[in-house]
Amino acid sequence: xxxxxxxxxxxxxxxxxxxxxxxxxxxxxxxxxxxxxxxxxxxxxxxxxxxxxxxxxxxxxxxxxxxxxxxxxxxxxxxxxxxxxxxxxxxxxxxxxxxxxxxxxxxxxxxxxxxxxxxxxxxxxxxxxxxxxxxxxxxxxxxxxxxxxxxxxxxxxxxxxxxxxxxxxxxxxxxxxxxxxxxxxxxxxxxxxxxxxxxxxxxxxxxxxxxxxxx
Length: 215
Description:
With 215 residues, the chain is of the alpha+beta class. It has helices at 5-13, 57-70, 91-102, 106-118, 132-139, 146-153, 156-172, 193-214, and strands at residues 31-33, 46-52, 77-83, 179-182, 186-188. The protein has one domain (5-214): Glutaredoxin (3-Layer(aba) Sandwich), CATH 3.40.30. It is built from eight helices and five strands, in the order αββαβαααααββα.
């Protein structure tokens, strides 16, 4: 239920768009319409949801491209990270994300978590035993007490957020990480990461145009 490291490399190698890929995205091929879809947390404007896991190698490969793309999003577009938990080893990092969010350090630490897992190897990676205490100690570098962070990870509020995100992923039929959904209505597909972001751009503009027409 995840994009493998091999497929992530193929996505990167396929980054140059062919003339066929540059055509207007087609429903059912380039994106899937989500029946009665809505964002996890609806907001004014257009909501872009990225479904991810910190330990997913494909998410790590996608992250720098996604960050550069997100920095250019127009006004009125809100980016939301949704941590996946459809595998047991994803769950501790989903809890960590929501614990960090509750303590106002999620965005500040986001890139560093990928760095610690995939490059410096100071946090457990895919295939290694999750270690919540080590995760909590990592976040202490971002101004929160390690024991406070650990308590937040184990809190009912964080557990409910993880469960709510998992239910949202099921409704949207998210097949793997990374995945991108526009306004809760469209699951982006694509033949490469660059193609995914091109299709996402198209769907964002589609939603902005529809909103302007309705207004």
